[in-house]
Amino acid sequence: MRVRVLGVDPGLTRCGLGVVDGGKGRAVRCVAVDVVRTPADADLAHRLLAVSDEVERWMDKYKPAAVAVERVFAQHNVRTAMGTAQAGGVVALAAARRGLPVVFHTPSEVKAAVSGSGRADKAQVTAMVMRLLNLEVAPKPADAADALALAICHLWREPMRARLAEAEARAAEMARTHKARLAAAAKQAKQVKNPGAAR
């Protein structure tokens, strides 16, 4: 069974988009990759609208099962961080309208998933993306390669995350059941010890 993921490296000046199909095991295939650009001197609302329109067009065209977005991390340039967060919010909203799950991955998570090291640089990530997807030409700019890396990261990490969540839910249910049994046993022991208390 194939799973399709839209990876988004959010940004106002450049917003990377990458669609990847995941198959059995770790097999991945590039479906589409591009970058949405908006002029820096344009009004913020119109820039966000341009990003939203293109992201929604991609969602309708490629019909992903999930959307993976890069989580905003601390940056020295507050303005850049704000723009990135706003673009990410627009993407999440577009996905929510279509009932698509959205997962935010940190840059280190993506690097670790794709290259094996959370400290890999952009050149290493791009090289690994090319290798994993059998691409002859490097996606440019780096935002495009990052979007593909996000999709790959999600395809590889999400099944494990889902299994962990399921295991945690089962453990919590077992703990609740055990606690209820202990309480019932304590109550029964108290009644045996003091039969008049139950009357």
Folded structure, characterized:
This protein is α/β, with parallel strands linked by helices. The protein has five helices and five strands. A five-stranded mixed beta sheet has the order 3-2-1-4-5, sandwiched between helices. Helix 1 packs across helix 2 and helix 3 packs across helix 5. The longest helix is centred in the last third of the chain and has 52 residues. The radius of gyration is 23 Å and the shape is elongated. 33% of the residues are buried.
Question: Which CATH class?
Answer: Alpha Beta
Number of domains: 1
Distance between the termini: 61 Å
CATH fold annotation: Nucleotidyltransferase, domain 5
CATH homologous superfamily heading? Ribonuclease H-like superfamily/Ribonuclease H
Q: Count of helical segments?
A: 5
What structural class results from the helix and strand content?
alpha/beta
Low-confidence stretches: none
Instruction: Please list the strands of the largest sheet in the order they lie side by side.
Output: 3-2-1-4-5
Strand segment count: 5
Fraction of residues in H or I helices? 55-70%
How much of the sequence is in beta strands? 15-25%
Mean pLDDT: 89
Largest sheet at a glance?
5 strands, mixed
Helices and strands, in order, run as EEEHEHEHHH
Radius of gyration: 23 Å
User: What sort of overall outline do the alpha carbons produce when their principal axes are compared?
Assistant: elongated
Q: Please name the CATH architecture.
A: 2-Layer Sandwich
